[in-house]
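Q: I'm writing up a methods section and want to include an example of the input and output format. Could you take the sequence below and give the corresponding predicted structure tokens, formatted cleanly so I can copy it straight into the document?
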Amino acid sequence: MKNLISDSLAGDRVINTRKSGIWLLHNPSTNQGLAFGREQRDELHVRGMLPHAVSTIDDQVKLVLAQLRAKNSNLEKYIHLASLQDRNEVLFYRVLVENLSELMPIVYTPTVGEACQKFSHIVRSPRGIWLTPDDVDDMPSVLRNAPFQDIRLIVVTDNERILGLGDQGCGGMGIPVGKLALYTGGAGIHPSKCLPISLDVGTNNPNLLDDPLYLGYPHRRLQGRDYDDFIESFVHAVKEVFPRAIIQWEDFQRDRAFALLEAYRMRTPCFNDDIQGTAAVTAAGVLAALRKTGQTMAEQRMLFIGAGEACTGIVRLCSLLMRQDGASEDTIRRSMMAFDSRGLLHDGRQRLDKYKAELAVSKKVLDELKLDASKELTPLDVISAFKPTVLIGATAQPGLFTEEMLREMSKHVEQPLIMPLSNPNSKSECSPSEAIRWTEGRAIVATGSPFPDVEYEGKHHIIGQANNVFIFPGLGLGAAVSETTQITDEMFAIAARTLANIVKPERLESGAIYPCQNDLRVVSQKIACEVVKYAAANNLGRHISPEDTEEAVRQASWYPNYVPVHRKL
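A: Here is the clean output for your methods example:
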């Protein structure tokens, strides 16, 4: 079998080290705990430092799960898993990979939000790299302090818009750490190739600035030119120190998120998961639902409640998908409408920023629908006239999708697609049970947070979760394998179509428009393969032939298992 990856993205098959004794047990990359056998304990000088028993990794997994399930809260479980990650990385990822559905809400949302809020009070051991304004002239040397030097994937945040929680200062580091855990657990990118980074440019959160135990840069945030120069220095340093790294921008404030993406996407391979990943997973849900209804993308009428990063990204990607399917620009412009907090976005409204202007419907279309833009139009008014087939919410306003709205929608559409995407459950625009009940069981429902399945009049409805984890690990793996020079919108369209086609017919029949989360590795590998093929066909990266693509992706994917550790004299 030929080696298609010149230097393994999947880590070392053998660890040779000059270190021995307690250092090996304290290093999470080499520690195997009780799985070190008798001969290894002698060779590595750890004999007597461990109890007598020799365990298998499967024994260790069982013990970790028993300890974890005995915890009383999800935050305690988060802390326990973080401690495990800090002392035995292989075991941490083995536990995660084998229990993705159970542990994803602990490692990432929603529990990671609480961990970010309490970061300065619960952190046990630092991970990743922090960069502050004091480092602006020394960023390359600071990055070289990272524990590994062949970094291929960076998740970076400036901590200003952490989930729906706002400015969390240095506590925002929990997001890159959690996201990269899912890159490794979900796609097999080796942890030594991943680096979480916090751009700790200060905080405007008074609770943090007044906290004597706050661990971050204790000043108000950089603004204006100083902030822009800081980001420019960061990107330049990454290109110098980690020239093969992909940058994922994470949880930046909306205008900054768009500006950074526009400024750097042609200069270095980068993407914004809040904009592009959310768009891809949502579009995939729409495409999967169309497999059930038998319609095309160009036939959809989409109403968005919310006009932030998420909905702007979704509109952009759905427009691209419609265009790829042959829809005219006029058809596309007529097929989508959006509300922000002040009402319907239309071209007669004053002072729309350029991102909201993208979502504005024309007065001509409103006139055709007999909607008077001079009046304060409600979502119900628009639903009655526009007759949307798809309703998407990203507002963090619980109860915004009312019974009257959904009943009106279902009058005109046999199988309406309803997607309340806000996190956590308490912020969802409606519950799945409400959506199904108010549409007399005809709605296809997917949510941003995990919800239990719904029984309605003898039928079982599986509620799929529109979780970005179905997109970013596979896209990141494909980008790393191909060594693409750009991450394009077309790659996200490919990821969306691939994800939509993976959903099994029996899940679709029960209403689920996303796969089971335990299938994440299969999903990620398929998306990665399609991204590699696209990059090769468009001369964006390494040329890997289509027939070799699957094997190249397989070789790059790490499965957490112990490898031999030998002392190198």
